[in-house]
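Exercise 7. Given the encoded structure of a 339-residue chain, write a plausible sequence.
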């Protein structure tokens, strides 16, 4: 691993610069600023002296330089605005001074309303059914037109290219590299075969893209506007609908089948779901496994990553990846989940 301590762009993002960025929009922080959990971007909760559009506290997100182009970020914002217009409970950036995307101090940033909530109880089938209905509503809007500037989720960009990058940059310890490659080859073959099967009939649409439980805020149903609120469309892209469902499944096969049944019970009250896409659940899980390792490696120059992921890059980490790839090969060879 590269332990270089070269100054990272985010080192320039001091609390004063956060406050100045907001002041430049006519928003006046009262001095209370809290960094929220985010590795890819820098995100802060800021309280204001005077409310903006009825919100006395906002979430300010400074986008990682170089990750997305300006037009790609704007396309994400436009998608969020479409969802809000369709009364889908998504936390979208506020329009301030006629824009949702702003620039200050070398950073692009957005301002969103602060929304409370907790992680959803995914062992409650009524909660899963409710989430399923709202995912279907997201996908109904997402299917209305494609992304033009944001990418598509596929094996090339989420597995082949990251795997090649890891090897080219010698990120895998020599004592584990051969085992990792031996596990990777059959995994890639199975993923490519799964994505190729029925590709010509598969419907791709605009997705949330990273719909794990941490990106769903749940508020009690008895409160006004209670239920799920979806946050963080940073990974929005084109892909199959099942991408926004599989990360909500956990446990053994029986548990995952029951969870999937509840999700689809809600989803199909609103929108048809192509059951052929269930063949992609384990390939998508494997894609994420490979992509995650490359994501960590590519972000290592950001000081927050070595602090929060000290175990990454060790021989033990990569041996664990070998075992997980081998397990995923077995999973992909089994019959897909069915409901």
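Solution.
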């Amino acid at each position: 691993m590269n332990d270089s301590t070269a100054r990272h762009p985010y080192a320039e993002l001091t609390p004063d610069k956060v406050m100045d960025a907001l002041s430049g929009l006519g928003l006046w922080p009262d001095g209370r600023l809290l960094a929220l959990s985010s590795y890819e971007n820098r995100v802060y909760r800021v309280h204001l002296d005077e409310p903006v559009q009825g919100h006395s506290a906002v979430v300010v997100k400074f986008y990682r330089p170089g990750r997305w182009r300006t037009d790609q970020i704007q396309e994400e914002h436009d998608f969020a605005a479409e969802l809000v217009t369709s009364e889908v409970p998504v936390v979208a950036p506020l329009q301030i001074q006629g824009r949702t995307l702003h620039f200050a101090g070398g950073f692009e940033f957005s301002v969103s309303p602060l929304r409370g909530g907790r992680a959803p109880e995914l062992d409650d089938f009524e909660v899963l059914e409710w989430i399923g209905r709202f995912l279907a509503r997201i996908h109904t809007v997402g299917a209305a037109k494609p992304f033009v500037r944001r990418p598509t989720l596929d094996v090339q960009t989420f597995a082949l290219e990251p795997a090649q990058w890891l090897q080219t940059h010698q990120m895998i310890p020599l004592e584990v590299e051969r085992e990792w490659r031996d596990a990777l080859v059959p995994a890639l073959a199975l993923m490519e075969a799964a994505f190729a099967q029925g590709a010509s009939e598969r419907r791709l649409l605009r997705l949330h893209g990273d719909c794990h439980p941490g990106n769903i805020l749940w508020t009690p149903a008895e409160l006004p506007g209670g239920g799920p609120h979806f946050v963080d469309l940073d990974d929005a892209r084109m892909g199959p609908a099942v991408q926004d469902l599989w990360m909500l499944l956990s446990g053994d096969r029986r548990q995952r089948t029951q969870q999937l049944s509840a999700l689809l019970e809600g989803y199909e009250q609103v929108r048809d779901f192509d059951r052929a896409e269930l063949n992609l659940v384990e390939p998508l899980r494997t894609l994420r496994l490979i992509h995650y390792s490359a994501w960590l490696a590519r972000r290592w120059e950001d000081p927050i990553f070595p602090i929060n992921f000290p175990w990454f890059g060790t021989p033990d980490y990569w041996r664990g990846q070998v075992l997980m790839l081998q397990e995923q090969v077995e999973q992909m060879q089994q019959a897909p989940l069915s409901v």
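Remark. The radius of gyration is 21 Å. Students should compare their own answers with the one above.
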